[in-house]
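Archive entry. Fields below.
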Amino acid sequence: NAGVTQTPKFRILKIGQSMTLQCTQDMNHNYMYWYRQDPGMGLKLIYYSVGAGITDKGEVPNGYNVSRSTTEDFPLRLELAAPSQTSVYFCASSYSAPGLGSEQFFGPGTRLTVL
Amino acid sequence: GQQLNQSPQSMFIQEGEDVSMNCTSSSIFNTWLWYKQDPGEGPVLLIALYKAGELTSNGRLTAQFGTTRKDSFLNISASIPSDVGIYFCAGQLSDGGSQGNLIFGKGTKLSVKP
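PREDICTED_STRUCTURE:
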């Protein structure tokens, strides 16, 4: 199993540009998550999904959108990139939540810079 | 939002020393997870805890779910250079708050001097 994969690994955007960060998992997990990690900070939840067709906002959803058309894929879209969105983005998945089986497995991250 | 206080923020130790770090909160949790993150990589799960008082080991790592359910501890024995990285605690609220999503501490950065 590849686990959780993310593309691209790095990206530089200009202010106002848009892009989609891709995330795929091959563990047949129901739950998927997007986090951002800023220097010296923990992970902040942007959006999450409990299954195909169901998404919900996390702690910091402004400026982002998600969709979940399949169990495997959970893309994150930035419509109008802003410098405040410069961060490292992690996708994660878990079998369930909460309790046993809720351990989240993370992808390698996408490092995004907005200039 | 909910807060997890993770300490210490950073540690600089000699190879062979033992390491202790902890996370505390004013809220009650039903799950505690400990992750390690290497530079340029995503967090990797080290230990998962599900019951108050539970003590679980993974090699040289031992973690405990505090009896009050408001804290958790991670110990690393006989540290080696590859233990370098950032260690994160993550907890899941017992009241189902945040739909069972994880709340992360800010991390403990560990440096090991050979």
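CURATOR_NOTE: Chain A has a mean pLDDT of 93.
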